[in-house]
Amino acid sequence: MHHNILEIKQLKTYFFTRSGVVKAVDSVNFGIRRGESLCLVGESGCGKTATALSILRLIDSPPGKIIDGEIRYHDEDLLHCSGKRLRQIRGHGIAMIFQDPQSSLNPVFTVGDQIAEQIRMHLKLKRRPTMERTLHLMEQVGIPRARERMKDYPHQFSGGMRQRIMIAAALSCGPEILIADEPTTALDTTIKEQILDIFRDLKQQREMSILFITHDLGTVAGIADRIVVMYGGRIAEVGTVYDIFDQPKHPYTHGLIDCLPDISARSDRLTSIPGMIPSLIDPPDGCIFSPRCPRSMMVCRQKRPKEVIVSKEHLVACHLYS
Amino acid sequence: MNRRLVEVENLKKYYPVTAGLLSRHVADVRAVDGVSFNIMEKETLGLVGESGCGKSSLGRAILRLEEPTAGRVLYKGNDITTWGRRQLKELRKEAQMIFQDPQSSLDPKMTIGDSIGEALLIHGIGTEQERLEKVTELLQRVGLEPEHTMRYPHELSGGQKQRVGIARALVVNPKLVVADEPVSALDVSVQAQILNLIMDLQHEFGLAYLFIAHDLAVIGHVSDRIAVMYLGQIIELANRKQLFSHPLHPYTEALLSAVSVPDPHQKRKRTSLPGEVPSPVEPPPGCRFHTRCPKVMEICRQESPVLRPRTGGRLVSCHLYG
Q1: What is the pLDDT of residues A64-98, one digit of tens each?
Q2: What's the whole-model pTM score?
Q3: Is B272 on the interface with A (CB under 8 A)?
Q4: Which of A315, B57, B266, B291 has the fewest CB atoms within 10 Å around its CB?
Q5: Neighbour-count burial for A185-213, b at 16+ CB within 10 Å, e otherwise
Q6: Which CATH fold topology does B4-321 show?
């Protein structure tokens, strides 16, 4: 029986806009275990970033609002704890790396200062131990000539290096859980591999849990223990990495896997999922994937599918299995 | 037997670096540093390399969207590097471009119909009615609806905007299309749709493509031949089968091994390249790749290798091969 250190229950995060209510996260449930790498996979607009931001209550309010659900971290509900307690947890218990290192690093402070700031705030160390720790972190994430480069500014680093700095800053207080939102998306393929290596090492050395958010299933295969597939603000399927790749159940998961370019493939033509990602404003009744689903049935247009357990770690929200 | 559509001879594109109050020219960013290759009629030549290797600069220089610093580009046997404005305008009917970021390459104040039809207007092709018909026909051919002629870019999704970019490039019936990272900004499933479209259109319109990307898996799907670029130079050129089954250059090997394989069972041997791409302002002496090459020899640090032919019509620039 696995114990979740973070548990998301029935999370609903909506955005109240002039065009209507965007149901970005529409009743999402899953948990993260100690030391595991959980990948949250889905295309743009599926709600994965909104889910991650909700965990740390970083949703822009207005127009967003977490209207329902619980986020249990150990024994606390993060959605209802005090602001002070939340600030203690952010960085120290749960840290986050955002999508674009360019815009997340402050251009007017040195990178050393930005990493040190985290340490000073949470660990309250004196100046020298803070600097030593900063240096050690930069070396750990593979920044060459770290002692000199601590005094450089973000614009003096390449994209891959900036991502490493973000990781160093996020790790500075030894969090239990690291949330990484599309950390390798903007990077070149060889640099991507270097960054994934860092994550793999971290997981192993520190027994840290990683919530890795991406739209790229290819990246996921190399790093995930378990995978949560999201579509239209809802969970489509959850399973181990082998469950998902070897025995995908949800037609959307099938579709996502099929449309990956594969260099060993014989055929020239790529399989694609017809149609487009749905609007999350006033979604129709029933399964939100049914308009694009090759196996859609009558019931799919009427009732939203419940999550069904397919095997030990594998569940799917699809009428084909209920 | 297809003819040579484009012949690039020792092309160079340098961007000046200035310093000081008087903006003295102190150095050059050698973005493209002596590149030669051909593009045959109706073929897709893939150009792959990481950020900063010069592939976008090369694509633009071939179309004279940027002025080459040195070298020649022959189009159907004519040296277009010497052409004046009037002749270049004619070239634009034959050679077009699809840009990476559909967001910034479409004028937000122009309707989709006007954006696509603009080229027809500039070249004085057809009456207003005929232009509208052609635009509508092309819109449908790229998978959009006639009603989209009246929409503005902000009303479309990323994938839809890219389809508009493609329609706009094809409206003048070109023979050559330079596609600069046309799918990099798109989600995987949309990527598949757009790649299929690009390939279908090639057959239908008899197009040649220079397909620029950093993702080898994508390049592998669409290309007949592939040129690999590193720091301003082509280091290997081979057909798709040759490159994927038997890469010669160590950099090509590294790129190949960094391709995300969507299979958790494959713990492939990863050639993780150390370090980062050196600055194109001061490329390393000798072979530019020597600072990161796992197979570096003494000669590599001193002498620059040259692109030499091997059996099967392929080329490689590496001291490992004499």
Answers
A1: 999 999 999 988 999 999 999 998 898 789 999 98
A2: 0.86
A3: yes
A4: B266
A5: bbbbbbbbbbbbebbeebbeeeebbbbbb
A6: Rossmann fold (3.40.50)
